[in-house]
Amino acid sequence: MGDAAAVRNAVDAAVRAAHSAEPGLIVAEGGFDPARVARAIHDVASAGRARPFLAIDCGRGTPDSIARALFGTTHARRDAAVEAIEHDSLLARAAGGTLVVGNLCELPASVQLRLSRLLRDGELTLGETVMPLGTRLLATALPRLDADVREHRFRPELFDRLQRIRIDVPPLRERRGDMPVLIAALFEEACRAAGRQMSLAPAATTALAALSWPGNLAELERVLEQLVRTVSGDVIRQEDVLEQVGLAQHHRRSGPLASLREARRAFEREYIATVLQEHRWRMTDAARALGIQRANLYRKTRQLGITRLKPPRAL
């Protein structure tokens, strides 16, 4: 239930963001493109009407260039009662639509102050006219943003104003329950992009779902695209996944000099251990998921040194 609840919470928060004018904060690990979530929120909120959707990456540019892009000026106007913007700024051009402030952890301190003031007042000056902030602001950030706030590297008042609606995108390792559905959807996209009609063998899906995917969605998409491009037949088998994914994932752990046999053994051990854990060590169910006989599974666990961890004894 844990992974299902995390996905459901993220979807519910995204729906709330789409039906609200409040700012939103999308938090996701590397390997995800949170702009996809922002775009989905924008599309639902726009309800088919053409509305501007603009974005800025705070990780690119100097403090002055980022301030100029957002507000149209490098410094706040001292004579303005509320934050002032220019007609060529992103905030002005995104009026009535959505502005995505990406890579929020990299937002310069001087710009944090101006953006916090804007959200506090809910108004801005355009030319000589004071008007309500008519742009939906969505920010995206890595999970380290929470630590940045605690350690005074990011303004807490801006953080609080942006996370009025917070969307925490769960990493793939916490989404075991819906991995087969996700894999099927991404595989279909990869086949369509490559112009091929292919299928995934059940054992291949099980192998893909069992991995931890430290690179998250980007890594999974890349592997599926590679499988679709390189497998010659119409069916992607478990062996194809072992060849493509096993070596790629265990290259980092085993080192560049690891042999093919070592890489395969490392992957096989992790894969079988994960399936056993998912099935709570019910050997018959795990063997069925792996596509092997139960006697072979017992033999594999002995050969690979896979043992069931005992729960800690209560004190």
Written account of the structure:
It is a single chain. The chain has helices at 2-18, 34-46, 63-71, 90-93, 109-121, 145-150, 156-162, 179-194, 202-210, 216-230, 238-254, 260-278, 283-290, 294-304; strands at 24-27, 53-57, 84-85, 98-102, 123-126, 129-132, 136-141, 165-168, 199-200, 235-236. It has 315 residues and is α/β, with parallel strands linked by helices. The chain has two domains: 2-170, Rossmann fold, CATH 3.40.50.300; 173-304, no CATH class. The chain has a five-stranded parallel sheet with strand order 2-4-7-1-8, with helices on both faces. The chain has a three-stranded mixed sheet with strand order 3-5-6. Strands 9-10 form a two-stranded parallel ribbon. Helix 8 (179-194) crosses helix 9, helix 9 (202-210) packs parallel to helix 11 (238-254) and helix 13 (283-290) packs across helix 14 (294-304).
